[in-house]
Amino acid sequence: MKDKLLPFVFLSFVLFGLGCPQGVNSQTADNGQAAHAPRPQNLDEAKKQVHRYRELTKKDPNRYLPKLAEALYDLGNMYYSLGRYEEALKTTEEAVKYYRELAKKYPNRFLSDLASVLNNLGAMYFYLGYEKALEPTEEAVRIYRKLAKEDPDSFLSDLAKALGNLGLNYFNLDRYEEALKAAEEAVKYYRELAKKDPDKYLPELAETLNDLGDMYYRLWQFESAIKTVEESVKILRELIKKDTNKFLPDLAAALYYLGLKYSDLGYHRKALKAAEEAVKYYKELAKKNPDRFLPKLVLALFLETAELLQTGDKRSCRKAKEHLKEARYMLKPYYDRDPQLWGWSIEVISELWKELKGCEH
After folding, report:
1. Is residue 184 part of a domain?
2. Which of 14-23, 108-117, 177-186, 255-264 has the lowest mean pLDDT?
3. Is the domain of 118 the same as that of 145?
């Protein structure tokens, strides 16, 4: 049965991904800047701020270059959020240039800003598939190591975030040993931070554990992967008690991946239980946002179907058949939209139908 799982394991990584670097969002990125102008609310405001501070910097660079760098940072994030990626990169690269100048003159004030914008630039490069994502992320980690050594209360969280991004970059470049080392170090720091401030850092710990678990999984270190993702699931179960809307998608995804890992190790009862719970949550989520969650619901249904077929009893076979019909119905609009991507799903359904025929006899 494991070979039958491989096509939708592939789809899992298409839909869920290994993980995403933290940053690249003007609303959530932590750029650590000391003095802020009001944040722009739209692209026109962001462009006007940049234009204004360009003119002012020409007259008084010592006073206004920090404002120009900050305005460029905001504009880069705004471009990125609108899918204008080339403009986002160009603008953020210019912000890095100015923060580098400022950090040379006033390191105590601007070195943390430089590290933050470098981390953001690296995240942009990573999302867009550029191998040069590694260089700014490595530099951000070096700076944050120095800052965290001097002031861990202020900068350990930034170091953990940058290390998590660095691990994803290394893994993407097949530098697996370095990837695991960076991700494991990020987890270590988030554990320390979560002990002091669980409300703030437990979500980051859960996310980083998931990324680490996926790395272990792709490197066939299944026992380590299971242990890591089980811990993430445990944390997420606590988090949804406080904010279901925010954390239920993360819990559903973690349960799905945990089910895959259980299945690979032959823990089929555990795999079935995790898959059933993932299906339950994805059905809730898909009612509110079908475009985002229906494809993921289908994958969870595939996993549950595969595990039901492992049991071999008639009741499970009937339930598996219902799941396959349901999945086929839900997949049709996605296959019609992109047959090249969703051709994998047709292959999975075909293989599972073959298994079902054997189960029914």
Report:
1. yes
2. 14-23
3. yes
State the Cα–Cα distance between residues 106 and 128, nearest whole angstrom.
32
pLDDT for 354: 80
Residue 217 lies in a domain: no
Using a cut of 0.85, tell me whether the model's pTM lies above it: no
What residue numbers bound the domain in which 188 lies? 106-196
Between the alpha carbon of residue 17 and those of residues 20, 210, 313, 338, 351, the distances in Å are 8, 11, 34, 18, 24
What does each C-alpha distance from 321 to 253, 278, 304, 328 come to in angstroms?
23, 18, 11, 11
Domain boundary among 177, 196, 215: 196
What is the C-alpha separation between 336 and 130, in angstroms, rounded? Answer: 31
Quick check: is 63 in a domain? Answer: yes
Q: Please count the structural domains in the chain.
A: 2
Task: Return the pLDDT at 27.
Answer: 33
- 71 and 117 housed in the same domain: no
Residue 26's pLDDT band, with cuts at 50, 70 and 90, is: very low
Model pLDDT, residue 24: 55
Q: How confident is the model at residue 19 (pLDDT cuts 50, 70, 90)?
A: low
